[in-house]
Design goal:
- The chain is built from four helices and no strands.
- The chain is mainly alpha-helical and 139 residues long.
- It has one domain.
- α1 crosses α4.
């Protein structure tokens, strides 16, 4: 049984997944805002995957005592892709024209993303460095 077939999120983790999947299924960027044209259009199939994840997580938010969530491999892959991009975008310039525009996640938000990724099967050893252009993980 793959790890993503039996996932129990904490309330905070579930709410994070809920908010990101809602934004994704509506084709919004982080924070619900985007540069003109920066949000890449998603297909109807990708949108449906996001909505499927959203519905599964909402059940766990409403009743935390319910059994673990079972995600498909495609749903887990979508979350891994999105959250990996979130981490890679941490502290990097996000604006096409304004290089002073940064998305920064605080340590708690970064750890929350890592916790969710670990629960769906990603192997992440530590927090990424907080300063661009450093790469890799802090020790």
């Amino acid at each position: 049984m793959a790890i993503y077939e039996s996932v129990i999120f904490t309330l905070t983790e579930a709410q994070f997944v809920e908010s990101t999947m809602l934004a994704y299924s509506q084709n919004q960027a982080v924070g619900g805002t985007t540069d003109n044209g920066a949000a890449v259009p998603i297909t109807q199939i990708e949108k449906q995957k996001g909505l499927d994840i959203l519905s599964k997580v909402r059940v766990q938010i409403m009743d935390p005592s319910r059994s673990p969530i079972t995600f498909t491999s495609d749903e887990a892959a979508l979350m891994q892709y999105l959250y990996n991009n979130y981490l890679q975008g941490h502290g990097k310039p996000q604006g096409d024209l304004d290089w002073g525009y940064y998305i920064r996640f605080d340590t708690m938000a970064t750890q929350l993303i890592i916790n969710v990724m670990r629960k769906i099967g990603c192997i992440i050893p530590d927090l990424p460095s907080g300063v661009y252009p450093k790469t890799g993980f802090s020790q």
